[in-house]
Amino acid sequence: MEIAQKIKKGYSNERGTGKFIGYPVKEYIIDYRKRVPNYDTSNLLRERNPQKVQRFVIDEDYFVYDSAIINLTEKQLVDRIGERVAELKKQYSDVYLIRMDENMHRESAKNAALKLHQFSEYTQDVHFEGFQPDFILYLQNAEFFVQVFIEPKGINLLEQDQWKEELLTYINENEAELLFEDDVQGVKIKGLKFYTMNDGRGTMKQLAQVVLGHDFDGLTMHNQIELQDE
After folding, report:
1. Which of 9, 139, 193, 204 has the least CB density, counted as fewest CB within 10 Å?
2. So where are the chain's domains?
3. Measured in whole angstroms, how far is the alpha carbon of residue 64 from the centre of its chain?
4. What are 151-197's pLDDT values in tens digits?
5. How far are the Cα atoms of 52, 134, 198 from residue 42, in angstroms, in the given order?
6. Residue-wise over 113-133: b if at least 16 C-beta within 10 A, else e?
């Protein structure tokens, strides 16, 4: 059973490194097929909010696809970033949110290239399998560009996937350990703590601090999703 689980996770017995290799975006942002489940994933995840995965049309310049197959938490993240695009563009000329679905390159070597791996030597719980964050926020100005990894998460999975969040935040706290290819200049890599429904953990506030150096102006305009009584 343990071996089978490792195979499913893409098990590797090697620790990752802090080296980032640049790949042309056009080679990775492709159309993909994904089955839309006809059940409410909140029933499986013991969430109290409806989390039915569905296709949402997102006709916005900042989103690199014209639609996305996502759940309600993910859609809320897309909307909340969308309302901050104008403010982000005061500092960055280019602002793009990229959905990195695991189905894009499932049967390709590119699948492994997109995954993050633990590279800290002092990690208490070692996980050799990598993971691919669900979203990348790409920001660019005249001096540099920033790539922010963002992972929405159901609250019931916070403990189980804590190692993923630790990896994302470790990137921010240990920038000196990050290495880039010689021909890649002016790059900043950032990671955020998990985004949960209604942003109860303050992920958007962290995003503002990471990429702007201050809080976003005003409160979010998007309504919160009310918890349903059991």
Report:
1. 9
2. 17-211
3. 14
4. 999 999 999 999 889 888 888 887 756 665 556 678 888 999 999 99
5. 7, 18, 15
6. ebebbbbbeeeeeebebbbbb
